[in-house]
Amino acid sequence: MTCPLTAKVKGELASRGSLVVAAYDIAVPVGTDDDRYRALLRALDDGFCVIEVILDDAQRGIDYRFVEVNAAFEQQTGLTNAIGKCMRDLAPDHETHWYETYGRVAVTGQTLRFEHRADALGRWYEVIAFRVGDPAARTVGVLFRDVRHRKAHEEEMQARVQARTAELEQAHAQLRHAQKMEVVGQLTGGIAHDFNNLLQGITGSLELIRRYIRQGRIDNLERLIEGAMGSAERAASLTHRLLAFSRRQPLDPRTIDANPLIASMEELLRRSLGSRINLEVHGAENLWLTLCDANQLESAILNLCINARDAMPEEGNLYISSSNVVLDAGEARRLGDIGPGQYVRIAVSDTGMGMSPDTVSKAFEPFFTTKPLGQGTGLGLSMIYGFARQSGGQVQIDSALGRGTTINLYLPRYIGEPSRCNRAVDTIEPTPASNELVLVVEDDDVIRSLIVETLSDQGYRICEAADGPAGLAVLQSRRDIDLLVTDIGLPGLNGRQVADAARLLRPGLRVMFMTGYAQSALSDSELLEPGVELITKPFAIDTFVRRIRGMLDA
């Protein structure tokens, strides 16, 4: 049985990219179509066969019979004497998808190009299948090539790529670890240096105070006390900066209109900048509100202005502007780790010397500074970065050598009712205590004793508890408690849980949270409900007393 050489067959054979066309048009002698067809088949290096597809009642291929094969067929398949035999007889384990594929070609006339593995033959094939002759004959031409060696090479190359990728990922992980350890080294080294100096100022002053008291020399103690207090305050400032860098500082988020906040800072900024720096402030009309810690925002703006001043050693201009911006997905992606949406942007620009790309890339690293030794901690920008990220925003530097610097602080827009602000409480002279009862819950004995003594000295009655369960027991009693003062980071039952239980038992009870590090108990962006305040350790006794009195008088 033979199959006539149709234009379809010639075209499909030619598409294999071999010398089929030349073999057909030049090398094959003039003769009958059968002669030319057989000569063409002999010239092919690829396997070729014509099969008669056997269909079931649903017109699905279930087997096929070999009508004709070329000389390369046996080499490409390993099958011998195939003509007239069915594939299921030659290879009983041949996969079903082969029969179904050829059945689809026979029924639809669709030409298919694909690669499949034939497990029964132990080979991979690149295949072109096309219908030939009368559709009723269900004959399909199959041109195929054994590509198992190419597949093996591809698999080997893929395995090499995967192994190389794994090696690179491991190398990158090691590099990231090394960079992290370098930052940790810088961090711990800087902390040790600064804290040792501060501790020396505190312990040295205290030792001299003790010595002078023993000697009866009490006339000059105030100077030493002020020195110790100054060192302690600088240590507190350093810890706040470290917590800001690591995004772990306890924030007191409030709804803020940045324009009046910046305006209230102008006098302070002009004094800090000096007469050689010209300051201009431009606030956008109808500026959106944002939700953040007002004190930290003031500190961030002040730090940016001080950095800008130092970048202009002779003279220059400094601009502070605010604006509403809407970031699309692309802009947010360029800023890095921030979602698209509406933001309040505060920009601080200077006409100073600018930064190199290398300096910009390191600007937010802890203890990185371009200032001379002893003139900068290197925590200013890292603190601003931590504050921005902790507030749900971002900070971005636009700078180049010789053209100045602009630092953009992005804070999310707040939509809702403005929250109350208690920042003026610190400046109000407290009224005397009226015999109110204060419950103090603090696990540190020294701090608890200090708070109890301070409040007792102010005329308050005191209950004290060393942990959450003990404090809760007092709250469950019949005692008429006016105010709860609790540390947030209590072991076990934390201060937030104690306060929540207290306000269920005693609705409207006023609560003062104390904290130095409380991320696990109080959300960074959580608004404190009315009657609840937050004070950060270490705090000044006078400030603490004023805050307590202000809450009780509210």
From TrEMBL:
Q: Which residues carry this modification: 4-aspartylphosphate?
A: D487
Q: Which PROSITE patterns match?
A: HIS_KIN (PS50109), RESPONSE_REGULATORY (PS50110)
Per the record, a Pfam family? HisKA
Q: Which UniProt keywords apply?
A: Phosphoprotein
Is DNA damage found in the keyword set? Answer: no
Domain Response regulatory per the UniProt entry, residue ranges: 437-552
Q: Which residues form the Histidine kinase domain?
A: 190-415
Gene3D superfamilies found in the cross-reference section: 1.10.287.130, 3.40.50.2300, Histidine kinase-like ATPase, C-terminal domain, PAS domain
GO molecular function term, any single one? phosphorelay sensor kinase activity
For this protein, what reaction is catalysed?
ATP + protein L-histidine = ADP + protein N-phospho-L-histidine
Show the InterPro entries listed in the entry: CheY-like_superfamily, HATPase_C_sf, HATPase_dom, His_kinase_dom, HisK_dim/P_dom, HisK_dim/P_sf, PAS-like_dom_sf, PAS_4
EC number(s) per entry: 2.7.13.3
Fetch the PANTHER family from UniProt.
SENSOR HISTIDINE KINASE, TWO-COMPONENT SENSOR PPRA
Q: What is this protein called?
A: histidine kinase
Source species of the chain: Pigmentiphaga aceris
